[in-house]
Design brief:
Layout: E1 7-11, H1 16-27, E2 31-36, H2 39-48, E3 53-56, H3 62-75, E4 81-84, H4 101-127, E5 132-137, H5 150-170, E6 175-180, H6 202-215, E7 221-222, H7 228-231, H8 233-236, H9 239-249
Parallel strand pairs: 1-2, 1-4, 2-3, 4-5, 5-6, 6-7
Helix pairs in contact: 1-6, 3-4, 4-5
């Protein structure tokens, strides 16, 4: 993926990783459209970052995705990058159905159906461009499980395999697929995560991602150094140690 000269839509980017990357990509010389559910947050971004366009979208709602896709494509016919950023992460207790069913269903809708629907809404637009990219967002937890977030782990593992699969299907077309694999980052994805000493500072993460995109334009997986402990446990042969360490050190593991 080239680092400049793109038109990029990032739904679910009114805060956290999505917003940090949106701001940096805009500064790098891209046209950036930020999507989100809350109009007041979108208006604040537009006021603070002149030049960043905004659009209301609820990535849990198929009709909202379709409406936003129509609007974005009309405003930005040169759109050539889609970043499927939206996601949720919640604690679950699988010892009782009351402890996980509702949260699990919402997590699957947001983390898996959301990206699938987004790609479906934009794939023809992207294929019409001479150089296009789909950026999926998985997680280090796609490769090693955190005990207290089973459905989050599962949806991110699914996003990893979805990325691998559609990359094969789109080979030979103008559309590339890049998978972003964050570690724990200091955001509000979960309660207390922003203050966690184990979370990577947000600015440090976003800066490293941008550097990887600059240095490795042909990368299919974007991995900051901190996520490689989780990503390559099986390949190194220390997977059991990775899982034990993750669930011992992560402040949410004992929740």
């Amino acid at each position: 993926m080239r680092i400049t000269g793109n038109t990029i839509f990032i739904p679910g980017a009114t805060s956290g990783i999505g917003l940090a990357l949106a701001e940096r990509l805009h500064e790098a010389g891209n046209t950036v459209i930020v999507g989100g559910r809350r109009r007041e947050l979108l208006d604040d971004i537009a006021a603070r970052r002149p030049g960043i366009d905004t659009v209301e979208i609820d990535t849990t709602d198929a009709a909202s995705i379709a409406a936003a896709a129509s609007l974005v494509s009309a405003r930005h016919p040169g759109l050539n990058v889609l970043v499927t950023m939206a996601g949720m992460m919640r604690l679950e207790d699988w010892t009782t159905p009351d402890g996980f069913i509702e949260t699990a269903e919402a997590t699957v809708t947001t983390n898996l159906l959301g990206p699938i629907r987004l790609i479906g809404a934009f794939i023809e637009q992207l294929r019409s461009q001479p150089d296009a990219t789909i950026v999926t967002v998985s997680s280090g937890l796609a490769f090693a499980p955190l005990r207290v977030t089973p459905t989050y782990n599962a949806t991110k593992a699914a996003i990893h395999m979805l990325s691998e699969s559609i990359r094969l299907q789109l080979a030979g077309t103008s559309v590339r697929v890049i998978e972003l694999e964050p570690p724990s980052v200091a955001t509000d994805l979960m309660a207390g995560q922003r203050q966690s000493p184990f979370a990577m500072p947000l600015d440090e993460f976003a800066d490293e991602v941008m550097q990887i995109l600059r240095d490795e334009p042909d990368a299919t997986e974007v991995q900051v150094e901190r996520v490689k402990f989780l990503r390559y446990g099986e390949a190194r042969g220390d997977y059991a140690t990775v899982v034990e360490t993750l669930n011992r050190l992560d402040p949410h593991a004992a929740a």
